[in-house]
Amino acid sequence: MRLRVDLLPHGHYPDVVLVIDTLRATTTAVTYLERGADALLLTSTPEVALGLKGEGFLLGGERGGLPIPGFDFGNSPVEAQPQNFTGKTVVMNTTNGTGASHVAAQTGKHVFLAALTNAHAAARRARAQATEEVAIVCAGTDERVGLEDVYTAGVIAEYLLALGEFSIDDGARIALTVRRNSGNPLEALSSSVHGARLSNLGLGEDVRYAAELSTSTVVPTLVQGDDVPEGTLRFIAG
Amino acid sequence: MRLRVDLLPHGHYPDVVLVIDTLRATTTAVTYLERGADALLLTSTPEVALGLKGEGFLLGGERGGLPIPGFDFGNSPVEAQPQNFTGKTVVMNTTNGTGASHVAAQTGKHVFLAALTNAHAAARRARAQATEEVAIVCAGTDERVGLEDVYTAGVIAEYLLALGEFSIDDGARIALTVRRNSGNPLEALSSSVHGARLSNLGLGEDVRYAAELSTSTVVPTLVQGDDVPEGTLRFIAG
Fold first, then answer.
1. Which of B174, B180, B198 to probe by mutation at the A interface, max A CB count within 10 Å?
2. Most buried among A90, A105, A106, A164, by the most CB within 10 A?
3. Is A193 within 8 Å of B8 when comparing Cβ atoms?
4. GO molecular function: any one (chains A, B) (predicted)?
C-alpha cells in the first residue's frame, strides 16, 4: 500500500483521498454533521451557494476568514457546535477547503474530509477503503502551504502507519517530520500563519476547537450521484 | 525582512528569489560555472535548446534523469566536474529546475540558483540584495514536493536567520523543521524519492556530490537583457 501526501492540491488522485483544511472548513464540516445535519453541499463558488438559498438550505462559509454576505453562518466550528442541524442541509463555500474538495473529487472515488478532530476515524476509513494508495491532500491557504494542514496530514499518516504497511512519498515524510517536531496540536496550529491570523480576527476559540485530537468519529463522505445540484459535492456522515 | 519558502513553484515573486533544484539542475549549474563556463542559458523547452545547437553552444539536460538525444551532456555535476568549460556557454534544459527558474524570472528581479553546494554563498547574496523579502522556491519533481529541495531550503533558511532578523512563513517553518530532523545532507538526499531513483539509475555519485555543503562560492545569477535568445534565461557566475 502506498501513502502520498500532497502539501497543496495537485490532482490525479487515486481511489481514496482525504481532504484536509483544518482551519477551518473540514473541522466545521465535521461539526455540522455531528450536530445532526443530513448532508453538506460543498460548492465551487459562493455564487453557486447563494443560488441555492431559499430552497431550504442553510449557507455557511467565509472569505478572508469572515462570513460571506447573505450566508447564514461563517465557517466556525465554535459557532456551529451548540446548534442543532437535524433535518438540514448545509451549503458550504470557503476560501480553500471547498476548492480542494472539488479538485479531489475530479478523480478520487472515495473522498473524505479530515481534520484533527476526526483524524483517527478518517485514517481508519481510508485504510478500510484503500486497495493500492491513500492520498492525503492539504488545502493550504491561498495556494500557499499551511503548517496546520501539513501537521494534520502527519497525524493521520502516523495513524495509517500504525494500521498497516505503507510505502511513503516525500510529502508524507515531510508531514511526519512536521508532526513529530512541532509540539502538540494547539502549539502547531497556533504557530501557523493562518492560526495567528484567525486569533487576530478574534477567532482564537476556533483554533483551540480545531486542535482537539480525534474527538469525533464522524467522517464526511462524498456521495456521488446525479441528484446533486450543479457545481456542488454532497457529503454525508460516514 | 520576510523569508518565504515555496515548497513548489507558485509565482508572484518578490525582488529576490533563490531557485532550488538540488537533484540536480542547480547543483550542475553551479558546477558548469565553477568549471569556467561564461554563461548558462536555461531554456523553457528542450526544443529551444536544440534550436541553439550548432551556434557554438554546449547542450546539457535530462528527461526522466537521462540525457536528452542530441544533447552534449546529461544533467550530471559529476560528469561536468572534470571538464573545462572556459569560453563556453552551456544551454540547459531539465525536467523541473529550468521550468522553476522561468516561473521565478516572470516577476523576480534578482534571481539566483541555489543548491547545497553553494548554500552559504547563495544565502549571503540573497541577504545582500534583499530590501523587504527573500523567497526561496523549491522546484520539486514532476509537480510533487521533493524532500531534497525542502531540506536545502531549510539549510539556506538557517543561514539567512543567522545573517539577520526575518519573519518567516509556514513554508520556511516546515523547511527548517525538515532540515533539523532529517539527518545530514547525504542522509536527507538519499531518503528522498528522487535521490533513490537516481541511485537506481546508477547516478548515486551525483547524489553524493549534491550533498556536499557549501563547497562553492559560485552563485548563478540571472542577467536580464534583450540580447538573450527567445525562450532562454541567461545566468552568469556571481
1. B174
2. A90
3. no
4. magnesium ion binding
pLDDT of A54 over the 80 cut: no
pLDDT (tens digit per residue) in B174-217:
999 999 999 999 999 999 999 999 999 999 999 999 999 999 99
Residue B186 lies in a domain: yes
Closest CA to A85 of A39, A117, A131, A128: A39
Which of A169, A170, A193 is opposite residue B170, by nearest beta carbon? A193
The verdict on whether omega for the bond into residue A63 sits within 30 degrees of 0, i.e. cis, is no
Which positions ≥6 away from A46 have C-beta within 8 Å? A61, A63, A68, A71, A93
**Looking at chain B from residue 132 to 161, which residues have their Cβ under 8 Å from any Cβ of chain A?**
143-147, 150
Residue in B8, B10, B181 nearest the CB of A181: B181
Q: How far is the CA of B143 from the CAs of A1, A80, A177, B163, in angstroms?
A: 22, 37, 21, 31
Number of domains in chain A: 1
Contact between B116 and B152 under an 8 Å Cβ cutoff? The reply is yes
- Determine the structural domain holding residue A21 and report its residue range: 2-37+96-225
B178 and A174 in contact by Cβ < 8 A?
yes
Q: Do A144 and B180 touch (CB under 8 A)?
A: no
- Rounded to a whole number of angstroms, the distance from the CA of B71 to the nearest CA of chain A is 30
pLDDT at A226 (0 to 100): 77
Residue B85 lies in a domain: no
| pLDDT tens, position by position, A151-208 | 999 999 999 999 999 999 999 999 999 999 999 999 999 999 999 999 999 999 999 9
Report the chain A residue with the minimal C-alpha distance to residue B182: A177
Contact assignment for B145 to A174 by CB distance below 8 Å: yes
Q: CB-based contacts of A173: which residues, under 8 Å, 6+ apart?
A: B147, B191, B192
Does any domain span residue A14?
Answer: yes
What ipTM was reported for this prediction? Answer: 0.93
